[in-house]
Specification:
The protein is about 10% helix and about 35% strand. The chain is mostly beta strands. Strands 47, 48, 49, 50, 51, 52, 53, 54, 55, 56, 57 and 58 form a twelve-stranded antiparallel sheet that branches. It has an eight-stranded parallel sheet with strand order 31-30-29-28-27-34-33-32. A six-stranded antiparallel sheet has the order 3-2-7-13-10-11, with no helix packed on it. It is globular and about 105 Å long. The protein binds beta-D-galactopyranose. Beta-D-galactopyranose binds near residues 532 and 565.
Length: about 1000
C-alpha cells in the first residue's frame, strides 16, 4: 500500500530538530481527549482514504488519547459488543528478554496490529497559523497527517516527536497511524509489557514569529566559591532578542550572557530552585534553575564537590489500569512515597519518563539517571549477531534517540547522568552515541553498564553482584572481565562505580538491603545503587476480584512469555507498599542515630542539608508499655557531620523488670511537600541493659490466672500440666480444653520467588522438594512420662531418602501450662548427598501446630508490625503489636511464604469459644499463623485458590532462612541459611 516505513532503519522523517520541553505562555491547544479509532489486524488494507476531511468515521470506535489501545475497550468495526483485549494475544503482551517478533531485522510480521486515529479539532481565532504539533509518546511507530498533508513518521516510543505545521482557523483534521510492531521494536526490548498506542499527550503549540525554538540552561555551581554561574543559550525563530530574568538573584541577562552570583546549590535533599523567565517579545518560558556541578574526581562521583551517593530505585512508568499513561497525581504519589521512604534517586529504567516527572524531581528533590529508550536485549538470541549498537547502518537512528532525550531533558537539574541504554550488548556504536551526547551536553557523566570494556562509560557499573563481589569492587580489587584489554582494564579501575540494579524485589523480598548499604558506606568509590524495582507491573482484574492482578502468564497461550517476572516491585501494582518498603526506608536513612555511652549520636549522611529541620525524641518502653518520653536537645549537624547530646536520665527503678527499650526518632519539624510535619526520617532502638541498667528478668510476666481443669491420664491419653497428649505419637492433643495439636517438626516453607532462583540457578526450592521437605513423615520412637515431665523421641524423614531428623520433645508442667524443649539432630547423609551434587538446604527449622478455627486475634511482643525475616528485619521495631490472624499475611499476587514475625518474645491468641492461649519463646521464636498450611500455600497458583482449611496453622520456629533476591540476584548468603546443625529451643504454652 505504501513504503514500509515502519521497517526502515533510520531516524525520524519530517520531525523538527529536538529541543527542550518547557512550560511556555504561547497558546497551547491540548489535543488529548476522545479521538476516533479503528484497529486493523495487519498493515495491509489500511489505505489512506481515512485522511480525507469528510471521511465518515461515525462507525469508528472512540478512544481516549492518551492511552494504550490494548488496555481500552474496543468495539469491533464489524459490529458486536465492545470487548477488552486483556488476556488475549492481541492485547497487552509481556516478555522479559525475548522479542515478540522474529529476530529478522528490519522486517516485522504481516500480522501487525495497526491503529488509525482521527481527530477533528477547532483552532481558535488568534492562535496563529504556524504551530508545532508535539507527540510526547507513541508506541511504537507512527505516521501523521494534518489536513491530508503527510507530516512524517517516527519511532522512539518514549521520546518526543515534533512537527512544524500550518493550521487553519476553525476545523482541522489530524490523522495518525500507529503500528504495534516496527523497526523500533528491535530497539525497545525492555523487560516490560508491549503496549501500543498514543500513550502520552498530544499538543498543538502556537509558534509566534519570535517563538523560542530551543534553550539550554547552563547553571553551574562552584563549591569552592559558593558562586552559581548562569548562561542560557537561546535560539529564536526570527532571530530576535531574548532576555533572561531571575528576580530572586537580581539577574537580567541577554541570551548567551554569563553571570556569577552567590547561590544555594541544588541537591536532592535541598532542591533549591530559582524561578525565572526567558522571554522574547512573543513568548515567555518559565525557568526552574538549579545550580549544581556533577563531576568525577579521583575516582569518586561528586555533586557540588561532595560525594554523590544514590539511595535509589529503578522506576518504570506503570499504572494498573492505564499502563504507561500516567497522570500527574500518580507521578506525585510515586515521588511522595519515595521521599517518605528515604529514596533519593531514580534510574528511569529503561526510557525517559514523562517530562512532568522530571519537573517534579527538580522540585521535590531526586537525583535522576535519565536512561534512553534503547534496549536490544533480543539480539542475545542471535549471539549478538547484528546487534544495532555494533552495526553502522543503525547508528544515526540510535544517535537520534539519544539526542531526543538529551535535548528534551537537558535543563533539569535533577538529571545528573545520562544512561545511553540498558542491556544492549557491546558495540562501537556507543562511541558514536557518546559523541552525540557530548555535542549537546558535556556537563553530566555518561553511563553504559553492559560493555565490559566500559570504554564509552564514565562510570563502572554492574547489576546484581553478590555482597562479596561488591566488596571487591569497593576496594578496587574486582576480577578482570574476559576479553578486556590492559588499557581498558586499567581505566575501569579508576572509575567510580554505580550499582544500576540490585535487590530484586520480586514477591517476598529482597533481603540484605542493609548489607549493601554497609558496603556502600565503607568505600568512596561506590556511589550507591538502584533497587530493582519500584512497582509491580500488574493490571487490574475486575473480572476476578481477589485475584489481585493480571501478569504476563495470564495471556492465554502466548509465547514467549515473561510470566510473573513483571511483578517485582517494592509497591504492589495498586501502589500499596509491600513490606520491603519499610526495610528500604530504614536502610536508606540519611541520618544515623546511635548510642555512645550515655550520649545519643546523630550522624548526618545527607548530601547537603543540615539537620536543623529535624527534632529528636525518645521514648522508653517496658514490654511494650510506655514508661517515659522526652524531647532531646540535639544540636543540628552539618551534612557529613555529627552532633550528640546526653540521653535523659530515666528513673531506673521504674525501668526494672521485663524488656526495656529506648527508641529514638528524628522527625521533621515542618510540613514538607512530600510529608506532613512529624514524619520519621530515622530511628534507632536500644535495649536498656546495653545502657547498664539493671538486667531485665528473662521471662515475661505470667498470663492472667485462669482455672485449669486437671484430668488424669487414662485410655484417652496422657495428662500433663492441664493438657492431654496422645499415647502413641506423644503429640499434644488438647490444651486448656481446646484441641491444640502439635508439634510436627517442620522443615518446609512455601517457596518464595526468590527461593526459586532464576532459570535453574540458585533454585533452593527445587532442592527442598527433591529431598522431600514438603512431604515429611514422622515416626515416634518413644514416649516416656516421668512425674511432671514427658519425653517424646521422634524420627522425621521423607520417602526414598536416607536423611532424617531425630528430635526429642521434652515437656514439663509449669505454673499455668507447659514448657517444651525441642532438640533436633540432622542424621544421615544430608550434605552432600551421595545421589545429588548439591548441598541440601532447609528453609525452616521449627514446629507446626494445628489450632481450632475459633482463634482470630493475636497479640505479640517482638518485631513488627510487618513481616520480618533474618535478612529483612532492621526496618522493624521491637514492640507490642496486635492484629487479626488473617491480617498477618501479606497478599503477594503469587502465593508464597509470607507473614513471618521473627524474634518474637511472646504471643497471645484469642477468639470466640476458645481459651486464651499464650506462647512464650525462651527467649525468641519465629511465628507464622494462618488458615492454610505451607503446602497449600505452595500449591496455590493464585490467591483465589487459597482456601480456609478450617484450622489455624501455627508455626513456632527456631529459625527460618532469609529472603535474598536470587530470583535475579545472587545466591542467598550463607549467613542467612539454616545450618544443618544440632539445635535446641524452648517455648512455653500457657492456657
Ligand atoms: C535486568 C534488567 C531489568 C529486569 C531485571 C529483572 O537484567 O535490566 O529490566 O529485567 O533484570 O527483573
Amino acid at each position: 500500500m505504501n513504503d514500509a516505513y515502519w521497517e526502515r532503519i533510520g531516524p525520524s522523517v519530517g520531525t523538527r530538530r529536538p529541543r527542550a520541553d518547557a512550560p511556555s505562555d504561547a497558546p497551547r491547544l491540548s489535543l488529548n481527549g476522545d479521538w476516533r479509532f479503528r484497529l486493523s489486524p495487519t498493515t495491509a488494507g489500511t489505505g489512506e482514504e481515512f485522511l480525507a476531511d469528510d471521511v465518515d468515521d461515525a462507525q469508528w470506535d472512540a478512544i481516549a488519547v492518551p492511552s494504550h489501545w490494548v488496555l481500552e475497550e474496543i468495539t469491533p468495526l464489524a459490529g458486536g459488543p465492545a470487548r477488552s483485549l486483556r488476556g488475549d494475544a492481541e492485547g497487552p503482551l509481556y516478555t522479559n528478554t525475548a522479542l515478540p517478533i522474529p529476530l529478522d531485522p528490519p522486517r516485522v510480521p504481516h500480522e501487525n496490529p495497526t491503529g488509525d486515529y482521527r481527530l477533528a479539532f477547532d483552532v481558535p481565532e488568534g492562535f496563529g497559523t504556524h504551530a508545532v504539533l508535539r507527540f510526547r509518546g507513541v508506541d511504537s511507530c507512527a505516521k501523521a497527517w494534518l489536513n491530508g498533508h503527510e507530516l512524517g513518521h517516527w519511532t522512539g516510543s518514549r521520546l518526543p516527536a515534533e512537527f512544524d505545521v500550518t493550521v487553519r482557523p476553525g476545523r482541522n483534521v489530524l490523522c495518525v497511524r500507529v503500528h504495534r510492531w516496527s523497526i523500533g521494536t528491535y530497539l525497545e526490548d525492555q523487560d516490560q509489557w508491549w503496549l501500543p498506542g498514543i500513550f502520552r499527550d498530544v499538543d498543538l503549540l502556537a509558534r509566534p514569529a519570535a517563538a523560542i525554538d530551543d534553550h539550554h540552561v547552563h547553571a553551574d555551581f562552584d563549591p569552592a566559591t559558593g558562586l552559581g554561574t548562569l548562561r542560557v543559550d537561546v535560539s529564536v525563530g526570527d532571530g530576535s532578542a531574548a532576555r533572561i530574568a531571575v528576580p530572586e538573584l537580581s539577574l537580567d541577562l541577554d541570551a548567551g550572557e554569563t553571570a556569577s552570583v552567590p547561590v544555594h546549590p541544588w541537591s536532592a535533599d535541598a532542591p533549591r530552585l530559582y524561578r525565572g523567565t526567558l522571554s522574547t517579545r512573543d513568548e515567555t518560558i518559565e525557568l526552574a534553575i538549579g545550580f549544581r556541578r556533577i563531576e568525577i574526581a579521583d575516582g569518586v562521583l561528586l555533586a557540588n564537590g561532595r560525594p554523590l551517593r544514590f539511595r535509589g530505585v529503578n522506576r518504570h512508568e506503570h499504572h494498573p489500569r492505564t499502563g504507561r499513561t500516567l497522570d500527574r497525581a500518580t507521578m506525585v504519589r510515586d515521588i511522595e512515597l519515595m521521599k517518605q521512604h528515604n529514596i533519593d534517586a531514580v534510574r528511569t529504567s529503561h526510557y525517559p519518563p514523562h517530562p512532568e516527572f522530571l519537573s517534579l524531581c527538580d522540585e521535590y528533590g531526586l537525583w535522576v539517571v535519565d536512561e534512553c529508550d534503547l534496549e536490544t536485549h533480543g539480539f542475545i538470541y542471535a549471539g549478538w549477531q547484528g546487534n544495532p549498537p555494533d552495526e553502522p547502518e543503525w547508528y544515526p537512528m540510535l544517535a537520534e534517540r539519544l539526542e531526543r532525550m538529551v535535548h528534551r531533558d537537558k535543563n533539569h537539574p535533577s538529571v545528573v547522568m545520562w544512561s545511553m541504554a540498558n542491556e544492549s550488548g557491546a558495540g562501537r556504536g556507543f562511541e558514536v552515541l557518546r559523541e552525540s551526547i557530548l555535542s549537546i551536553d558535556g556537563s553530566r557523566p555518561i553511563l553504559y553498564e553492559r560493555d565490559p570494556s566500559y570504554r564509552d562509560s564514565d562510570l563502572y557499573a554492574v547489576m546484581y553482584p553478590s555482597l562479596e563481589a561488591l566488596e571487591l569492587i569497593g576496594r578496587g580489587d574486582e576480577p578482570r572481565p574476559d576479553g578486556v584489554s590492559d588499557d581498558d582494564d586499567a581505566r575501569r579501575r579508576t572509575l567510580p562505580f554505580v550499582l544500576v540494579e540490585y535487590a530484586h524485589a520480586m514477591g517476598n523480598g529482597p533481603g540484605s538491603l542493609q548489607d549493601y548499604e554497609r558496603i556502600f558506606d565503607a568505600h568512596p568509590r561506590l556511589s550507591g545503587g538502584f533497587i530493582w524495582e519500584w512497582i509491580d507491573h500488574g493490571f487490574d482484574r475486575p473480572d476476578l476480584p481477589g485475584e489481585r492482578v493480571m501478569h504476563g502468564g495470564d495471556v492465554d497461550g502466548y509465547r514467549p512469555n515473561g510470566g510473573r517476572y513483571c511483578l517485582d516491585g517494592l509497591l504492589f501494582a495498586d501502589r500499596t507498599p509491600s513490606p520491603a518498603l519499610a526495610e528500604v526506608a530504614k536502610a536508606f536513612e540519611p541520618v544515623r542515630l546511635t548510642i555512645d555511652g550515655g550520649d545519643l549520636v546523630l550522624r548526618n549522611q545527607r548530601h547537603a542539608r543540615d539537620t536543623a529541620d529535624l527534632r529528636v525524641t525518645c521514648t522508653l518502653d517496658r514490654d511494650g508499655e510506655r514508661l517515659a518520653q522526652a524531647e532531646l536537645p540535639m544540636p543540628a549537624a552539618l551534612a557529613g557531620g555529627e552532633s550528640r547530646c546526653a540521653l535523659p536520665t530515666f528513673d531506673t527503678e521504674a525501668a526494672q523488670g521485663g524488656e526495656v527499650w529506648l527508641t529514638v526518632e528524628a522527625r521533621t519539624r515542618d510540613d514538607a511537600p512530600w510529608a506532613a510535619a512529624g514524619h520519621v526520617v530515622a530511628w534507632a532502638q536500644h535495649r536498656m541493659p546495653d545502657l547498664e541498667l539493671p538486667a531485665a528478668p528473662a521471662r515475661a510476666a505470667p498470663p492472667p490466672a485462669r482455672t485449669v481443669t486437671r484430668r488424669p491420664s487414662g485410655d484417652d491419653g496422657i495428662a500433663l500440666g492441664g493438657a492431654l497428649f496422645d499415647r502413641d505419637s506423644g503429640r499434644l492433643l488438647e490444651l486448656g480444653g481446646a484441641p491444640v495439636e502439635g508439634p510436627w517438626l517442620d522443615l518446609f516453607r512455601a517457596p518464595t520467588e526468590n527461593d526459586r532462583g532464576q532459570g535453574g540457578r540458585n533454585d533452593l526450592a527445587a532442592v527442598w522438594t527433591a529431598v522431600g521437605l514438603d512431604r515429611l513423615v514422622h515416626r515416634t520412637e518413644r514416649v516416656t512420662l516421668t512425674g511432671e515431665s514427658l519425653e517424646v523421641v521422634t524420627r522425621t524423614g521423607a520417602a526414598a531418602h536416607p536423611h532424617r531428623v531425630e528430635h526429642t520433645a521434652s515437656w514439663r508442667a509449669i505454673d499455668g501450662g507447659l514448657e517444651l524443649t525441642m532438640r533436633v539432630e540432622f542424621k544421615g547423609p544430608w550434605s552432600p548427598t551421595p545421589h545429588r551434587a548439591r548441598d541440601i538446604v532447609v528453609p525452616r527449622l521449627g514446629s507446626r501446630w494445628r489450632l481450632p478455627a475459633g482463634y482470630t486475634r493475636v497479640e505479640w511482643f517482638g518485631h513488627g508490625p510487618g513481616e520480618t525475616y533474618v535478612d529483612s528485619i532492621e526496618g522493624s521495631r521491637v514492640g507490642r503489636y496486635a492484629a487479626d490472624i488473617d491480617d498477618l499475611a501479606v497478599p503477594y499476587p503469587t502465593p508464597q511464604e509470607n507473614g513471618n514475625r521473627s524474634r518474637t518474645r511472646w504471643l497471645a491468641l484469642e477468639g470466640l469459644g476458645v481459651p486464651a492461649l499464650r506462647i512464650e519463646g525462651a527467649p525468641l521464636i519465629d511465628v507464622t499463623a494462618r488458615r492454610h498450611t505451607s503446602e497449600q500455600l505452595a500449591d496455590a497458583r493464585s490467591p483465589l485458590e487459597l482456601r480456609d482449611s478450617g484450622h489455624v496453622w501455627l508455626n513456632l520456629d527456631q529459625r527460618q532462612q532469609g529472603l535474598g533476591s536470587a530470583s535475579v540476584g545472587p545466591a542467598l548468603p550463607e549467613q542467612y541459611r539454616v545450618p544443618l546443625e544440632p539445635a535446641e529451643w524452648t517455648i512455653r504454652l500457657l492456657a
